[in-house]
Design brief:
There is one protein chain. The chain has about 375 residues and is α/β, with parallel strands linked by helices. It folds into two domains: about 230 residues, DHBP synthase (Alpha-Beta Complex), CATH 3.90.870.10; about 110 residues, Threonylcarbamoyl-AMP synthase, C-terminal domain (Rossmann fold). The chain contains twelve helices and 18 strands. The structure holds threonylcarbamoyladenylate and magnesium ion. The site of threonylcarbamoyladenylate has 27 residues, from strand 7 and strand 8.
Length: about 375
Amino acid sequence: MTKSIFVSSIFLSTVFPCSKFMKTKLVELDPIKPDSQILKRAGKILKNGGLVAFPTETVYGLGANGLDEEAARKTYLAKGRPSDNPLIIHIAKLEDLSAITKNLPVAAEGLARHFWPGPFTMIFEKSELVPYGTTGGLETVAVRIPENEIARKLILAAGGYVSAPSANISGKPSPTNARHVIEDLAGKIEMVLDGGQVSIGIESTILDMTVTPPMILRPGRITKEMIEDVIGPVETAEPMSGKDDQIAPKAPGMKYRHYAPEGALQIVKGEPLQEVAAIKYLVHEKIAAGYKVGIIASDETFSFYTEGIIKNLGGRNDEEEIGRNLYRILREFNEEKVAYIYSESFPGQGFGEAIRNRLDKAAGQAYLSAGEFLTDNI
Ligand code: TXA
Ligand code: MG
């Protein structure tokens, strides 16, 4: 069954005084057998230069025609994103790759066979077909074939090339359900396809194929080990500290503060039980000073806390669960208007590396050492 409603934003005129008021259509779709009529309509919106948000297995994307410069301009405006930060073009069939790229490296084929469709993006030299508006002025283009059924059918209905950044306001946590998209983009885009909760919750791995050896620009569900099993050694780009904006980052998006909750997030590092003790101390102090405080805990430690707004990210070693919960929890803290958030640290192996990367970015690399707060008073 398909349900649709209209959502609009009364704040639109304050945020974008020049833009026209727009009604955003929210349509629920069956994630396994999505209604083809709806997809056709959504595809037509994209073909006509409009914006449609849609689910992928990683996060919700803000779709536009990837070959249309004007559609890219609208994407940047809706997200409030700087236009030097390029978009990923999503395709549905491997055959469509050659039209938008040049000089494809041999290794790309094996990687595509292993990881497409899926949470994996590769960067290649772009062909003339791809406008600079989509690539933020770069000679390269990022490409992904997503696995999500709604995403793939929408791409086909739209003509094959859909640019899609995460469907959030720039700087906010990426959306993992349609409600998050509405929170950020209602009144600014034509349609949101609601395919339910995403299954991964962390954006795709990005591998730059234009350098030798290829370089991971953003860690994700497809890990370094998985890539190396297919093509041998690859490198990983150094994470940007956020302070050194003089250095040109490998992925332009890396220089911007990302995934940030509104409250000040700090990660407390130490042995798990030390972390709990230190967080309890910090939370108690801040509450006594009159602040609202959030805690990011785990299955194993959740019940130790007695004060503050406590959120359970999942089992400490269950990266899949942590990945699905992270952005939702960061958004919930925004709704609850906490002033401070203290997070336990989480192991960073395999997919855990991607989770740690996002948590670090959300915290703006703010760490506290648990040992510093351990006194007899705790
Ligand atoms: O999982 C995902 O990748 C999601 C879903 C919707 O597919 N999309 C996504 O897009 O995360 P976005 O725009 O939020 O992040 C894309 C990142 C940005 O940091 C951007 O700078 C980088 O990819 N990027 C895109 N094209 C690039 C290029 N040609 N060279 C280097 N970095 C590029
Ligand atoms: Mg993003």
